[in-house]
Amino acid sequence: MSEFAFWMVAALTIISAGLVVFSGQLIYSAVALLFTLLGVAGLYVFLWADFMAGVQVMVYIGGILVLIVFGIMLTHKIVSVKISQTNVQRRIGGFAAGLFLVILISAMGSASWFMEVTPEPVETVRTIGILLMTKYLLPFEAASLLLLGALIGAAMLSRKEN
Amino acid sequence: MDQLTNYLFISAILFSLGLFGVMTRRNGIAVLMGVELILNAANINFVAFSRFGGMDLSGHIFSLFVIVLAAAEAAVALAIIITIYNSMQTVNIDDASSMKQ
To answer: What SS3 state is found at A119?
Structure first.
């Protein structure tokens, strides 16, 4: 049963990711991206990363995806329902991406990975919090500074010049 | 679902789809969506290695930082795209290749 659920989530992720890159309308791509991000959150649950699944839903779906939909609305005449888009150089792009995929999968399939299934962590949030406040304190602070700078920069860039 | 390679294959497919989107899309926002797919593929790998590698939860922290960077990147990229749209009336990244308007 759980195996079946895993493959359903994997199929949801990959099929909707295909829709994101092949769909002819930008707004359909954005909706397909929603299901891809949900599928990735589901994969996190299978990987015992419950906190990461929550962060994925809140930051990606609640933040970045909403930002992307705002971007679509601000850069197109939303009155015209059809916001079409095309793929150019499909053949050479598909060839390059397909070749990359074949190389990646053959390398991953043939490698002998060090596999040691750790016991399921009892409390991931507590462990992540302790790691963030001890071992990864400096990157944590640097990330907060970067986020502040990026947001101020974005607001500066997109304001109206008078 | 208890195989590391399953997750690696899913993330490889996601990465290749994102790469295809970045290479072939000409709408700036669609290119941004391809970049998000690539970042998600990397995140799946981090968390998968964290579970199967026999280490502590450092992989979760790494993908947390990737999510923070993705949020910053999306905000700045959309601001740039909106600025380009306001000055050139297009979001096609091939048309927006001149250095001055």
So the answer is: coil
For chain A, what is the domain count?
2
Closest approach of A18 to chain B, Cα-based (Å): 7
Q: Pick the residue from chain B with its C-alpha nearest to A43.
A: B44
For residue A34, what are the CA distances in angstroms to A29, A110, A145, A153, B3? Answer: 9, 33, 28, 26, 26
Contact at CB, B10 and A51, closer than 8 angstroms: no
ipTM of the prediction greater than 0.95, yes or no? no
- Answer whether residue A43 shows pLDDT above 90: yes
Tell me, which fold does domain B4-97 have in CATH? Helix Hairpins (1.10.287)
Residue A88 confidence (pLDDT): 74
Residue A113: band (very low, low, confident or very high) from pLDDT cuts 50, 70, 90:
confident
Q: Measured between CA atoms, how close is A154 to chain B, in angstroms?
A: 5
Predicted pLDDT at B75: 92
Q: Which of A66, A86, A106 delimits the end of a domain?
A: A86
In a domain, A138, yes or no: yes
Q: Please give the Cα distance from B9 to A68 (Å, whole number).
A: 27
Nearest to A136 among B15, B61, B69 (CB): B61
- The whole-number pLDDT of residue B95 equals 77
- Quote the crossing angle between the two packed helices B58-88 and A137-158, to the nearest 10°: 10
Domain span holding position A159:
120-162
